[in-house]
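note to self — DONT lose this again. spent like an hour looking for the file last time. sequence + predicted structure for the chain T wanted, 241 res
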Amino acid sequence: MIGLVVVSHSRALAEAAVALAAGLLPEQGVRVEIAAGLHDDELGTDAVAVADAIMRADSGAGVLVLVDLGSAVLSAQLALDLLETPVLVKISSAPLVEGLVVALASAGGGAELAAVAREAEQALDAKRTLLVESPDAAIENHPQSSTTLVAVDNSVIATIEVTDVHGLHARPAAELVAALRDLDASVLLRNATTGAGPVPGESLTRVLTLGVLAGQSLEVNATGPDATRAVDRVRALVSGR
């Protein structure tokens, strides 16, 4: 499993970001280290501290480094030259808070470094999508559907009412992605109420762009030997079970 390092000019900011991510996604089993601030609570970053954090976070699968401001990038880059032993490291351009949440979910699900980095760098997609679209207009144009289940060849298509009070925000969306990861099935998800999607069920950032709320309907299109199991897992998660 890869490790994560948060590099920030402010120790308080880094600790708050890690606390938020861990609160949304507890017990992920991911090593998350902080390299933030200078001595006596001064603002700044220290390349030596970043290098030490990378070494602590590494378990052999690589480390993703998330940073807040430009000079934090410079400290992270310098830290690579200070590593005592070679470590596979990726310095991410992802937004610190959103990127950390997505990276923690992806890493906790066992994704490799390149995949986690890619997900983190797309972490603002959900915010962009939700701010551009008008939920009221979308609901008017795409009325909700009742729960249905249709099997075609090796595919299963279901429309499921989302009864979990949290909808598909970060934590349940991450649980959904993790629940589908070990199945032999290709899963596409669509917000049947607003018309958003479809998006692949393997990508947390793409699932979040659906903006699924409680009371809306989620369309699940699963193909493969485990298609029925995939639909069952999605149904259990979005109903709060």
